[in-house]
Each structure stands twice: as structure tokens, then as C-alpha cells.
Backbone:
């Protein structure tokens, strides 16, 4: 019993990490850039490795989705639920707009992997939204 207490007492106590907080204008600018270019917000904050990993994940999922002939949705009000797909798709920022201008992501419903590709495109956008929220928390000093 005493050995356990001695082990707890001898464990080094780490000092609390002091988190830096940015002003809201800088935070919003960083988050906007992170939405346009996935991972850029973390790079601007100084988290290079995390930003590179996030950027490569979003880009890989987006390219795989296009390679599987997935569909990028436009803002259409004919089908109300397509608005949610559009919101998920634009989460990738510039990747979406570039692919749309190059006429990529038209989707081939007869292609066997069409549904998987479309889902990859949605998830890449939704993942980028979560990445931007992570950068927001770091910039506001809520997360180390």
C-alpha cells in the first residue's frame, strides 16, 4: 500500500500549460482561411504537422471521391434535401470550386462506386468543418 503512495509522490508534476488567446478578428480570419484551404488554419497558428496531416486527409478523401465518380451537388432548391449535400460539399472550400469549374464531380450513377464516391466527397467537407472548429478552439485558447 505504501509503495503505491510513494510511486504517486515521486511522479513528476507537470506545470499547467498556459494557453494563448487570439483576438476574435484574427481567429475568424484564420478560420476562414482554414475553410478555403483545408489545414491552413493550423499552419497559421503554428501547428505545421497537424495542418499537413489534416490537409492531406481532406485532399485524399476528396480526390478518392472524385475518382470513384462521386457527385458534387450544386445549390438546387428543386430537391430540398440536396441543400444539405451542397453544404457538406462546400466544406472543402477551394477544392469544391476548382472541381466544379473543371466539370469534375458530375457523378455517374451507373458506376459501381458512385455512392461511395459521393459519400467521400461529403465526409471530406464535413471533416474540414470539424478541422476549422478545432483551429477555432486552439486560437481561442480552449485547447492546447
Residues:
Amino acid at each position: 500500500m505504501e509503495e503505491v503512495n510513494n510511486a504517486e509522490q515521486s511522479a513528476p508534476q507537470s506545470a499547467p500549460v498556459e494557453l494563448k488567446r487570439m483576438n476574435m478578428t484574427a481567429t475568424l480570419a484564420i478560420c476562414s482561411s482554414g475553410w478555403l484551404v483545408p489545414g491552413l488554419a493550423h499552419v497559421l497558428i503554428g501547428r505545421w504537422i497537424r495542418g499537413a496531416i489534416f490537409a492531406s486527409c481532406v485532399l485524399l478523401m476528396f480526390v478518392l471521391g472524385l475518382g470513384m465518380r462521386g457527385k458534387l451537388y450544386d445549390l438546387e432548391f428543386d430537391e430540398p434535401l440536396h441543400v444539405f449535400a451542397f453544404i457538406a460539399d462546400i466544406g472543402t472550400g477551394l477544392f469544391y470550386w476548382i472541381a466544379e469549374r473543371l466539370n469534375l464531380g458530375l457523378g455517374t450513377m451507373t458506376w459501381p462506386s458512385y455512392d461511395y464516391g459521393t459519400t467521400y466527397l461529403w465526409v471530406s467537407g464535413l471533416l474540414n468543418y470539424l478541422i476549422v472548429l478545432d483551429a477555432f478552439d486552439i486560437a481561442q485558447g480552449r485547447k492546447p
Q: What stands out?
A: The chain is about 60% helix and 0% strand.
